[in-house]
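Design request, tokens follow.
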């Protein structure tokens, strides 16, 4: 195995970093904006079935539900339960900005339980909201199909004129 056989940049399966996802989970507005994205034909499931913790799109609600039960998702949720490592933490380990780091730790201890409750409350209804969206879309698609079937039936019931060809 030479140095060229080792893949240096594994970009095919690369997902968003934990600190970016932690920022997405910080406010209810950002969670809602990710849950209710506009339809995009270039994303799986038109961008409607999104796991906020894993930053992945899924084809349908059933695939999202099975993903939420998977080991990969549970591992990602566990990783996101603690605050990600940042530069202030590394500076505090080196001995600089120690007071600022201690202030941030105290703020984190006070705000973290409320943030977790907010996150759980907003994401608890994720699958139910997707089911409602599916029902609404199915009803919207059903109405034009029924109208088209009705017009076809009317056209079939209409009397047919005979056309004679000139001899």
């Amino acid at each position: 195995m030479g140095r060229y056989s080792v893949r240096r940049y594994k970009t095919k399966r690369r997902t968003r970093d934990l600190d970016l996802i932690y920022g997405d989970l910080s406010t209810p507005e950002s969670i809602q904006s990710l849950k209710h994205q506009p339809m995009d034909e270039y994303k799986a499931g038109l961008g409607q079935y999104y796991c906020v913790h894993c930053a992945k799109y899924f084809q349908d609600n059933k695939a999202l539900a099975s993903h939420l039960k998977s080991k990969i998702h549970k591992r990602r949720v566990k990783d996101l339960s603690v605050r990600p490592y940042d530069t202030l933490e590394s500076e505090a380990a080196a001995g600089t900005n120690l007071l600022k780091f201690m202030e941030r730790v105290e703020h984190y201890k006070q705000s973290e339980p409320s943030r977790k409750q907010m996150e759980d409350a907003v994401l608890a209804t994720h699958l139910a909201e997707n089911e409602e969206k599916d029902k609404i879309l199915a009803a919207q698609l059903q109405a034009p199909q029924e109208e088209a079937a009705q017009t076809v039936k009317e056209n079939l019931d209409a009397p047919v004129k005979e056309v004679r060809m000139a001899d």
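Comment from the thread starter after seeing the answer: thanks! The chain is about 60% helix and 0% strand.
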